[in-house]
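Ops channel
N.P.: pipeline sanity check, posting one input/output pair.
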């Protein structure tokens, strides 16, 4: 029950986050008259919201009291100082957003910080082309008629090497450059003007193509809908719907673009898993199975876990998972806000008639409240502890196991793969016939089950994780590196098939 609840909770917390975000947007729209209008009002709003985000994080985030992360509180304090220093220079909405983002980058944790409302987003601009990161460089992925040719490499801008420019203009205000997957997703934003007044946009860049070098002066203009479509596909490509297909005989393609599925996608996941379980011999005889995680940004680990059980065999999967996570514990941060949110999740589960899950979540909420009454910072949920692994748990195969599945499995990894997407990689890579292909993944901290707490201004919400994994096998900040990098500029199914077929031929 505890393992199943742990897999379900990220989806429930994500749903709660979506509800909060929708509520926040409604609030922002309803209070337009209170939205800052003058430079001084924007400056005061930035300072007040950074201070509020600091206080809410200090009171609720498990990292503040995590004995495995003694630097967290100092990072949070430094984030406050740096954020407030930049907030003092804010004069309009773009500066407000940038100051909040600087606060986030100083904490350096994707599950901490403050998120401005989408309603504050102003029109973006581009210089008439968009780029994609492949290997260790940016390449032109799409271009308007007056732009540089598609496929050209960007060498430098304004005499400045490209990587330092990306660090100062992108990663100083967003994401984490030490996670290699973030280069594949966010480095391209060096050529997207998001109205940050604290950076200097590149004016002239040098490119190379077909052995020739040339220079272009950049003419920044509003991104057109077509350019926005190109941008959305510049790192994931055109992805496939949830489902199982056979692009050629005996090669099976499993598309998992989201672990936050809607009703139709949930049905598709169940059908796909049932197909593998009921006709397993078909996959035992396959040339290869491809699991496509493009576009996936997490959600619930139920979907990948159930599929892995069907493919590799339930008993074999559960033994390896037990051995992998032996000694892991879950500590819930016992604060007033977190406990209230746990009670809210109980209500969601009851409304969905998931009484067993609701009872377990009630026990967690009660434990958090009792810990809080005792003045303790955490409720340690013993029912979520993984215990120790036995010799049988570590056994490769045991009598009664389903036939071993040993055919090649290729898992396509996008650079933004995090949260439950990383859980999927944890599951799939327990088996030696799995090979990762694509880009490095993103990384998680050990802080999970986030909620979004709206600020009084209506302009932003604070990210608050409710629990911390202790002794998790995958360490905080650890990411996956592919065995095969996919450097094709267009991440299409045919491109990946070509790479996979070449690797199969070597076998």
């Amino acid at each position: 029950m505890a393992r199943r609840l742990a897999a379900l909770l990220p989806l429930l917390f994500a749903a709660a986050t979506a509800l909060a975000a929708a509520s926040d947007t409604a609030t922002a729209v309803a209070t337009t008259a209170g939205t800052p209008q003058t430079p001084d009002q924007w400056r005061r709003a930035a300072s007040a919201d950074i201070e509020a985000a600091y206080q809410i994080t200090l009171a609720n985030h498990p990292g503040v009291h995590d004995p495995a992360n003694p630097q967290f509180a100092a990072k949070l304090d430094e984030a406050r100082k740096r954020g407030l220093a930049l907030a003092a220079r804010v004069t309009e909405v773009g500066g407000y957003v940038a100051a909040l983002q600087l606060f986030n980058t100083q904490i350096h944790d994707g599950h901490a910080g403050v998120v401005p409302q989408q309603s504050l987003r102003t029109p973006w601009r581009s210089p008439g082309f968009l780029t994609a990161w492949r290997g260790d460089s940016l390449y032109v992925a799409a271009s308007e008629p007056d732009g540089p040719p598609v496929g050209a490499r960007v060498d430098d801008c304004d005499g400045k090497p490209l990587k330092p420019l990306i660090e100062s203009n992108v990663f100083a205000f967003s994401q984490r450059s030490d996670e290699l997957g973030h280069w594949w997703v966010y480095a391209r934003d060096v050529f997207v003007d998001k109205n940050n007044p604290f950076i200097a946009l590149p004016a002239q860049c040098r490119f190379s193509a077909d052995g020739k070098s040339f220079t272009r002066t950049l003419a920044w203009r509003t991104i057109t809908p077509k350019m926005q479509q190109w941008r959305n596909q510049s790192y994931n490509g055109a992805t496939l719907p949830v489902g199982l297909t056979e692009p050629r005989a005996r090669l099976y393609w499993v598309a998992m673009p989201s672990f936050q599925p809607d009703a139709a996608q949930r049905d598709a996941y169940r059908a796909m898993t049932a197909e593998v379980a009921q006709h397993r011999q078909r996959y035992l005889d396959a040339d290869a199975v491809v699991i496509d995680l493009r576009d996936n940004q997490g959600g619930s680990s139920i979907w990948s876990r159930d599929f892995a059980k069907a493919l590799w065999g339930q008993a074999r999967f559960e033994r390896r998972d037990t051995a992998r996570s032996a000694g892991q514990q879950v500590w819930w941060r016992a604060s007033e806000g977190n406990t209230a949110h746990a009670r809210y999740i109980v209500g969601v589960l009851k409304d969905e008639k998931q009484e067993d899950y609701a009872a377990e979540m009630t026990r967690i909420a009660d434990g958090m409240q009792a810990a809080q009454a005792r003045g303790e910072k955490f409720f340690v949920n013993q029912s979520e502890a993984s215990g120790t692994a036995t010799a049988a748990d570590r056994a490769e195969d045991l009598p009664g196991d389903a036939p071993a599945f040993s055919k090649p499995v290729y898992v396509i990894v996008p650079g933004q793969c995090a949260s439950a997407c990383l859980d999927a990689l944890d599951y799939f890579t327990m088996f030696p016939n799995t090979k990762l292909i694509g880009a490095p993944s993103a990384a998680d901290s050990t802080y999970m089950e986030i909620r979004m707490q709206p600020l009084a201004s209506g302009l932003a919400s604070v990210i608050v994780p409710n629990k911390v994994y202790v002794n998790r096998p995958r360490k905080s900040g650890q990411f996956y590196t592919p065995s095969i990098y996919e450097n094709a500029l267009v991440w299409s199914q045919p491109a990946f098939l070509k790479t996979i077929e070449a690797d199969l031929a070597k076998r």
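N.P.: looks fine end to end. The CA atoms of residues 134 and 487 lie 5 Å apart.
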